[in-house]
Amino acid sequence: MKSIYSTFSRLFMLLFLVLGVSSIYAQHARISGQVKDPSGAPLQGATVQLKGTKIGTVSDVNGAYTLSAAPGKYTLTTSFVGFSTQEIEITLGQNGLTQDVALVNTGDLSTVTVVGSRNVSRTRIETPVPVDVIPIAQVVNDVGQVDLNQIINFVAPSFQSARQTIADGTDHVDPGQLRGLGPDQVLVLINGKRRHQSALVNVNGTVNRGTVGTDMSAIPATAIERIEILRDGASAQYGSDAIAGVINIVLKKRTGLLEANASYGMYSTSYDKNFPLYKLTNKADDPSVHVTDGETFQGSLGYGFSLGKGYLNITGEYIRREPTNRTGTYTGPVYPNVNGVNKDDSIMAARGLNRDFFDMRIGNSKMNAGGAFYNFAYPVSGKTEIYLFGGYTRKDGTGAGFYRYPSGIPTNATIYASQAFALYPNGFLPRINSEITDFSTAVGVRTKLGQWNMDISNTFGLNRFNFIIDNSVNYTQFAIPGNKQTKFDAGGLKFWQNTANLDLSKKYDVLAGLNVAAGLEYRIDAFGINSGEEASYKNYDVSSKAVAGAQVFAGFVNSIGDDKTRNAKAVYLDLEQDFTNKFLLTGALRFEDYSDFGSTLNYKLAARYKFSEQFNLRASTSSGFRAPSMQQRFYAKTNTLFVSQGGTLVPVESGTFTNESEAAKILGIPELKEETSQNYSVGLTTRPFTGFELTVDAYQINIDNRIVLTNNFTGGNDPLLQAELDKAGAGAANFFTNAIDTRSKGLEAVLTYNTSIARKHALRTVFAATFIDNEVKKGPDGKPIIHATDILINSGQIGNYFNREDQSRIEVANPKNKFSLMFNYKYNKLGAMLRFVRFGKVEYLDPTINPDSAHKFPINAFTGQRETLDQTFSEKTVTDLSLSYDITSYLGFTIGANNLFNVYQDKHTHSGNVSLGRFIYSRRVQQMGFNGAYYFARLRLSLPTK
Fold this sequence. Notes:
disordered N terminus; globular; Maltoporin, Chain A; 2 domains; 22-stranded antiparallel barrel; five-stranded mixed beta sheet
């Protein structure tokens, strides 16, 4: 607890420093109140300003606002998209003023982007498809999470993101999913424009293996106003990747407000580190240990400049995250046997060591990240506005691999073992350091072309992911006398994208209103590989047949030449017809032509019927597609993968080959083609009384030719394949391929209730739930239907193409249901947030089990009992609590805890991944991570400027 007290004391010292600065504003008085719609429900996100000054703010989730100004007479101006601007003359005295505001609907939403509809007059509740709006600008003040993926994970049940560990580069980028589908089956936009993907390919055996996602953690959460999540297929509207839906990130554009934020927190938790050792030795002492780690600091500073009728909002953010470690105590042999006898205890005692010295690092990676984002718009005339937005982020991370024990030296490396372990007499834990650079910028013009609204834009994005390996060796390099190299530049990956758009829209007075939108798009995607330094990958002694390259992560070798590029051309038409003020019908068509795999035509139909002002029914059907990513087409590398053999994890050098390689042709691996989908949804929205809103939506998504990364093919009895493996220095090969078809079904519900009591009390309640059922399509025999060529089937290695573990990643490795219940209470200056998030059960299916066998599970050689290698992990509920206080109208602080009751997922028992005690918790399947309770404090400043 001492460390927790230290954490809070640091925050309070910072608080007093800011209070000293704030004394300059002590003569100001306070204006507060609540903004409501015509029904009396609170309006979140309304802009409240004192006319003629730069003093302003935005209403919170309860519609509440607070301003601070010198006493005097002012005009209070309140505006919100879809409502008429309200101006109220006020007189502010020394004792402050309470002023509520009620706005009136106008239907004008021209200043906001809402995904799911190209009609800017459509509100969220009126869209024919489900759209969630998350006010990130307010959420960040109440929670301890600091990066975007983790914030959304605990707010939106349909979104799932868990940090990975011992997964190479994936440790440094949190893959995010929507509706249990892949990270690359959700399209990410910023201000309505396509966001580029990460260069990284997830090739390890964790959830989302074989996918390429968008690194949303590269976008500072403090630069964001809100996030809109379209939970419906939208390929006909937005193009490739929008099978599961669309996430649109809207950047801040408020002006005249200096915003600063600082938070500090850490994990303080107990877990059963010695549990496997405790079971092995039957010790009676407590196997648990207490740890304090994962210290995280976040600081941000943002300001909005008023440029006449234009604006420029800039936000910079820095995050320092220390690693966490929930490793188990290693129970296996550390040193080679002496005359056939294990002497670990005596050797460790002589060297002053114990087994804790040989711990792995299993948990969050270390991360230092800094970046800045900007959002600019300026009207150059009454009809024309230019805009720019984008940002730059640099992230430096450190993760680790498997410990290399002196007892575990590969047989074919023993010739150099004495030299390697002269550097590391007790073995070594190799580290993977990442250098991630992310840059994006968009520039555009909005204007009028006759009666048409026209938007011309160009968006560029670049992601580089480089690897530095240290605390390692290349065994074969000891063939060079005097070698002591322990740090290697392993090269890396890069991906860039440029998208040019022309969008047109116009409203017609046809029946109750017709909105017509059309547009063109031209996109270039590019992927490249940067070779590492020679020592990171070279085999300096081929005759030794030792594993070549830096231990834990051999360097990249650019085998594809210059950056590979492709272009995609698209044209779309989008119609929304209000036949009456009750019945809406929308339709969209989109044709895209890719330079590398051909063309595709997709459609969408959606309808909404308003039975009353309180009740709507909606439904949609659409086709969709996802083009194979450039990373999946051209990624090529040899990686050290640890696979289970006889209950022990064994390192295997596995090469990922392209589908155009000779190895792919030998095995009959077909060339990649696009994934196609068919989406159906039906739902309802209701507002039965003031402040209460409920949406319920059911869906089904059928995906054909889904792309997966195969497992490892060996040379076997095929000399041609073995020759290709030998050329690449690999013992096995894997490939990206369109192996399966899947079906996803689900139900989603969101309920919100806002109420205020006696003016000063406000309570917002949000309940959200999702039920997910994803499955690989199966034949009459109940087995997965696998798309494989005759060559592949006849090779006898069809089991390496797609196995039970691959199936489990799609069907059961992510929570099949997720519930969130949040209470947000505000009384005068005091606020409280209480949130419960329940993660449904997950399962692991072992690939070595033969489901057709009468005895599916093997017999343990030591116990004589039949083992259960599959595992089900039970449901878990995480509780978050925070308390906030407004010291002044512009200064406040929050203290709180995430996972208040220190909940962990079930202990790990499945397959060889237990790995002699090292893995207490599974790295193959995760619900909410396994770090325990996190305590934090946050200081926030929102200072209006004159």
